[in-house]
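pipeline/complex-builder :: batch 7 item 3
reading input block
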Amino acid sequence: MNAKVTLEKMSVHFGANHAVKGVDLDFAANSVTAIIGPSGCGKSTLLRAINRMHDLVPSARVSGRIMLDSHDIYERSIDPVAIRRKIGMVFQKPNPFPAMSIYDNVIAGYKLNNGVQRSVADEIVESCLKRVALWDEVKDRLKTSAMDLSGGQQQRLCIARTIAVQPEVILMDEPCSALDPIATLKIEELIDELKERYTIIIVTHNMQQAARVSDATAFMYLGELVESGATRKIFTTPEKRQTEDYITGRFG
Amino acid sequence: MRSITLRNWQNHAATAMMLLGTVAVLVPLALVFFHILRMGFSSLSLDFFTNIPKPTGESGGGMANGLLGSAIMITLSACIGLPIGILGAVYLTEFGGGKLANTIRFSADVLAGVPSIITGMVAYTLLVVPMKGFSALAGAVALALIMIPIVLRTTEEQLKMVPGTLREASLALGVPLWRTSLQVMLKTATKGIVTGVLLAIARIAGETAPLLFTALGNQFWSRKLTEPMAALPLQIFSFAIAPYEDWHKLAWAGALVLVVVMFTLNIGARLMGRSARQS
Ligand SMILES: Nc1ncnc2c1ncn2[C@@H]1O[C@H](COP(=O)(O)OP(=O)(O)OP(=O)(O)O)[C@@H](O)[C@H]1O
Ligand SMILES: [Mg+2]
C-alpha cells in the first residue's frame, strides 16, 4: 500500500495548548481511514492541519511534516490555496452557500475562482449530483435555494460541491452527526463508492460507522495517536488497553 | 390571594405605562407628519418638480434644481462612501484582528458622533479653501464622511453574522481568502448591508449643515461638480427663513417631498431587513 498522505511528528499548538502531539501516521491512497477518539482529543485539529485550515487561526502553529505524495504541504514555497484544491473538506454541519442555488453550489469551486463554460458546468453539475445520488431528487429545481433541501440532502450537496473540483483527498469531519440514520446510510454508501477515486479521511464518533466504512482506523487520546492499523484488527484485536476500552465503551 | 391581586394590579400598571410610552412616541411623529402633509400638499404642484425658483416677487417656481442637486450629490457621496465603508468592514472582519483594526473601529465611532456641521467645516477646509470656491464635490465629500462610519459599522455587524463555516467551505474548495471574503461572506450578507446602506442614504439625504459651507446652494440649474450646487434641504432652509409667503409655501412642499423620500427609504430598509432575516 502506498501512502497518499503522511504525517511525520506532526504537532499542533494553540498558543500554549498542545492539541496534537507528534503524530506519525500514513493514509493509504484510495482507501478510507477513520479517526476515532473521545471528544477534545484533537481529531478535528489533526484533520484541519491536513488542508491548512489552521492558517486562519493566528494562535495555531503546526510543526513536524505533512506530506502529500511525498511533498511537504507546509513548505514555504507552497500556496495553501493550491493545497486546498487538492484536499477537499466536508464539515460536520451541512454548510451550503445560502446565497446560491443548488446548481451554483455544486459549481461553486469554479464559479468562485475563474468561472467555467456553461456547457461544462451543466455536465459537472449533473455528474456530481448523480454520484451523490441527489440528481433525481433535485433535477427539477436546480435553480432554487440550497437552503430548501433537507439536512441529509444538504450534506450530499456539500459532498457534490467537494468532488466537483476533483480533489485527490477528501477530509470529512463527522459528516453524519447532524443526520438521521437513513441519510447517514446514504452518505456511508457514497463514501464507499468515492474511495475508488479519492483518498478519504473521516472523523467519527460512531464506532459502527468507523467499522462499516473504513479500511484503516486510528485511535487518538489526549492529542496523541494511541494506535492505528487495519480497521478489522483495531476492532477485534487491538494492541493497547485504551483502544479496547474505548471501542467497547468502557471508557473513562 | 392578596398577592395575586397585587400582581394583577402591577401587571395592568406596567402595561398602561408602556402604552403611554408608545403614545408619547407616536403622537409627536404623527403631529409632525400631518402638519407637513397639510402645509406641503397644498403648495405641491407639477411646477415644484420641473421648475427652478422664480426671482423674488414672482410667484410660482419649484425646486427641481434642488432635487437634481441632491440626487447628484447623494449619488456621488455613495460612490465615495460605499466602497470605503464596505471594503473597510470586510478588512475589519476578515483580515483585521489587531491594533489597526481597533483604531479604525474607534475612529469610525468617533466620526459617527461628530456633529454634521463640523464635518462640513472639515470638508470646507480640505476642499473649498484649496479649490477656491464652493462646489458640489465638496458637498458630496462632506456627505460621504457622514456615510462612511455608518456603512462601515453596519456592514461589519452584518458580516459578523455570516457563519464562519461558509468561509471554511469556500477555502476548502481552493478559493483564495480575498475572493472568499468578497464573493461568499459579503454576498451572503448583501441584504443586511443594503438595509444599512438605505438607512445611511436616508440619513444624508436630509443633512443640511454640512452642505452650508460646501455645496452652498444655487438658485439656478447647476450641473458642474466644481461649482456651487442646489440641494433640497438647503433650499428648504433658505426658503423657510426668507420673508416671503410664497417661498414659505415652497419650503413646506420641499419638506413634504423630503419626508416622503426618507419614509420610503426607511420602509425599504425595513422590508429588506425582514427578508434578510428570513433567508
Ligand atoms: N481554534 C482553536 N483555538 C484554540 N484552541 C483550539 C481551537 N480548536 C481546537 N482547539 C483545542 O484543541 C483541542 C482539540 O480540539 P479538537 O476540536 O481537535 O477535538 P476533537 O477531537 O475534534 O473533539 P470533538 O470530538 O468534540 O469534535 C481542544 O483542547 C480544543 O480546545
Ligand atoms: Mg471535532
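note: The CA atoms of residues 158 and 189 of chain B lie 6 Å apart.
queue -> next item
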